[in-house]
């Protein structure tokens, strides 16, 4: 029963990932309605710049959402903070539904992006703080699976519903997300950091389905207190070291709240980059995330439409898109099931090697034209599956696992900001790669990064399956030695 409560929280706080998938795919079947010369949806058709911004503004909003999420979930808590950060989705779809102005719709897309960026930070944090070690890998894979489900659902909506009904379904899903998050119980880690020990004990009791006085609950409470206390003591020591005189002490007392916030942030930065285990974890996770982007999944998706149109010109583009999204979703589900069965290392290494082989084969087939186009199209689907079950999902599991609570929020924010910037870079540079290397040469470059990713998994990544946070920190140090 306790695991059921943990699954409920994982799905509820990850539901905005589904909204992200809905929001990102929506322009693919809506843009034509906005740019048509006889459009009745807008007062005037969208210009080229406006049509470009329709798809590119959400990532900019996501960067802003990533910046503010740490403050929001620290100030209001995981549960209330997540609720607030899901509201931009509701506001975005309401604005689009009520507006006939291009500017208003673009502003709405930016606002929706705020929710997209924040969910990638707070959902892994929330889940890792309530999940048992035996199912933590599965639960931290839920956000990626929900995103893929959102992509799948969006393609289906674009296929079977009209413009207005699509907006209403998106709005209904956004309201449902807010309602679901309101039903979850606050993280015991956050409650302990707020010195609300009794509420933390009740939260642990809820997530373990045990009596609040049971041995299981009391042991978990003691473990979390020991996990949090050293970081708190470090902040206090750093604060004392910075006091140069009695006047500074008086000033600190007069500005208590502001000073505590500043000192906490300073200590988080110091702990992240001076603690050997945190620094090691940050290096490994940032490498995995960077190589995940450089494998070129986003760029291959851009080229996939052309390959599909060549391979199956008689098929509906909507049908091809649905099949494409279905394969991605299936790969994410396999990752969700396999993460706690086979371990993170196996998934990352086997996935990266399989992706490299697919990319090399795609490059050879496109360069030589020795096979029919449908073979290359089928290979793209295979590539997407292998990418999603390991290389595309494991790095986000590591974000939730490899950091102590004191630096978890900061590390997640820095890493997600880097991912957004790197995605922007790879999408921008891809046309130039095609120009100078050809599409087949671009696939060879992506295959090279896939091989590097497998080496990171083989030589740098410690196995974190079933380990507590303390054991993971020890494993990171042992791996370094």
Automatic annotation (TrEMBL):
Subcellular location: Membrane
Keyword Membrane: yes
Keywords: Glycoprotein, Membrane, Transmembrane, Transmembrane helix
Matches recorded under PROSITE patterns: MFS (PS50850), SUGAR_TRANSPORT_1 (PS00216), SUGAR_TRANSPORT_2 (PS00217)
Xref: SUPFAM superfamilies: MFS general substrate transporter (SSF103473)
Organism field: Iphiclides podalirius (scarce swallowtail)
Membrane topology annotation: Multi-pass membrane protein
The protein's name in its UniProt record: Major facilitator superfamily (MFS) profile domain-containing protein
Main location: membrane
Ranges where the Major facilitator superfamily (MFS) profile domain occurs: 9-465
Organism domain of life: Eukaryota
The keyword Nuclease is assigned to this record: no
Residue ranges of the TM segments: 7-26, 53-74, 81-100, 106-127, 139-161, 167-192, 282-304, 316-339, 346-368, 374-398, 418-437, 443-461
Xref: InterPro entries: MFS_dom, MFS_sugar_transport-like, MFS_trans_sf, MFS_Trehalose_Transporter, Sugar/inositol_transpt, Sugar_transporter_CS
């Amino acid at each position: 029963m306790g695991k059921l409560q943990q699954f409920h929280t994982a799905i509820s706080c990850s539901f905005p990932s589904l909204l992200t998938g809905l929001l990102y795919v929506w322009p693919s079947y809506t843009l034509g309605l906005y740019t048509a010369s006889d459009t009745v949806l807008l007062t005037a058709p969208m210009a080229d710049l406006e049509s470009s911004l329709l798809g590119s503004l959400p990532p900019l909003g996501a960067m802003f959402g990533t910046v503010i999420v740490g403050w929001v979930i620290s100030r209001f808590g995981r549960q209330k903070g997540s609720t607030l950060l899901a509201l931009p989705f509701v506001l975005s779809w309401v604005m689009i539904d009520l507006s006939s102005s291009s500017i208003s719709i673009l502003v709405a897309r930016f606002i929706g992006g705020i929710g997209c960026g924040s969910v990638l930070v707070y959902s892994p944090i929330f889940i890792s703080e309530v999940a048992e070690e035996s199912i933590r890998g599965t639960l931290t894979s839920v956000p990626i699976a929900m995103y893929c489900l959102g992509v799948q659902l969006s393609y289906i909506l674009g296929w079977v519903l009209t413009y207005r009904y699509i907006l209403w379904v998106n709005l209904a899903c956004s309201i449902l997300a807010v309602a679901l998050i309101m039903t979850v119980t606050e993280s015991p880690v956050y409650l302990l950091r707020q010195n609300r020990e009794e509420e933390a004990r009740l939260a642990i009791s809820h997530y373990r389905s045990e009596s609040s006085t049971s041995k299981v609950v009391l042991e978990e409470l003691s473990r979390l207190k020991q996990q949090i206390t050293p970081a708190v003591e470090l902040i206090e020591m750093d604060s004392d070291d910075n006091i140069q005189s009695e006047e500074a002490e008086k000033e600190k007392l007069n500005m208590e709240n502001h000073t505590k916030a500043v000192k906490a942030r300073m200590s988080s930065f110091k702990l992240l980059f001076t603690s050997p285990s945190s620094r090691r974890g940050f290096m490994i996770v940032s490498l995995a995330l960077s190589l995940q982007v450089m494998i070129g999944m986003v760029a291959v998706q851009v080229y996939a439409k052309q390959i599909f149109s060549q391979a199956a010109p008689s098929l509906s583009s909507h049908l091809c898109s649905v099949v494409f999204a279905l394969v991605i979703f299936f790969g994410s589900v396999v990752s969700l099931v396999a993460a706690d069965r086979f371990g993170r290392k196996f998934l990352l290494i086997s996935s990266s090697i399989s992706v490299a082989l697919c990319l090399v084969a795609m490059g050879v087939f496109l360069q030589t034209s020795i096979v029919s186009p449908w073979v290359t199209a089928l290979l793209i689907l295979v590539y997407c599956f292998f990418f999603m079950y390991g290389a595309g999902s494991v790095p986000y599991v590591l974000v939730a696992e490899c950091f102590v609570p004191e630096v978890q929020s900061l590390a997640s924010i820095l890493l997600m900001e880097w991912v957004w910037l790197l995605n922007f870079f790879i999408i921008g540079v891809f046309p130039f790669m095609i120009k100078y290397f050809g599409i087949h040469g671009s696939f060879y470059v992506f295959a090279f990064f896939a091989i590097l990713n497998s080496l990171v998994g083989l030589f740098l990544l410690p196995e974190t399956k079933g380990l507590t946070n303390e054991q993971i920190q020890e494993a990171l140090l042992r791996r370094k030695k």
